[in-house]
Amino acid sequence: MESAANRGNTWHRHRALTLPELIIVLGVASVLIGLLIPALALARKNAVSVTCRGRLAQIGQAIVIYANDNHGCVVPFRLVDAGRELPWSQLLFHETSTARAMAVCPADDSSVTQSYLLNQWLWLRMVGISGRNRAHIPASAIVVVGENRLPVQYLYIPLDDAPDGLLYDAQHHGRILLSNYLWLDMHVSNEVPVRHRDGESAWDIR
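The structure assignment produced for this chain is given below.
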């Protein structure tokens, strides 16, 4: 009859892993971790991008409120007070702290004060929130606000200061998530603006 001690030894022998088995287990675990880390990183970037889209949606709501009080105008592309140019976000969100918070993408660090560019073509072409003077371009294809190319932080998309594509960042959230845009119909997405004519700004309205 097998003693209790022998039964215990047998149980331990059955539970032990051999060296090759241990190597296999560690290898499988390493592969799983290697697959999981990029997925977690992408999920985190996606969460940041979603927060960014939420801020742009709130900016869109503020623009609609401003337009309703100002004959349908989206927002002036220049706001000067006591000789100092103020950010357009401060015109929409009168509290300075709120304006700063809304104007910074959560993907950017604390040194950034302006993550978003306002499309000044809307003001220059006199395109209002109703979409007047936008030729035949649908409102869903007209950029109102997009993401800055850092470290340079513009308030508005300049007209002649740099070639098209240098001022706004088409991949602010990476090659998969791209950049977020607020469009004239007030939807927010990461669709890429279509260049309407060669040599012209993709944000222009013609």
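Interim note for the steering committee: The chain has one domain: 4-189. The longest helix spans residues 19-69.
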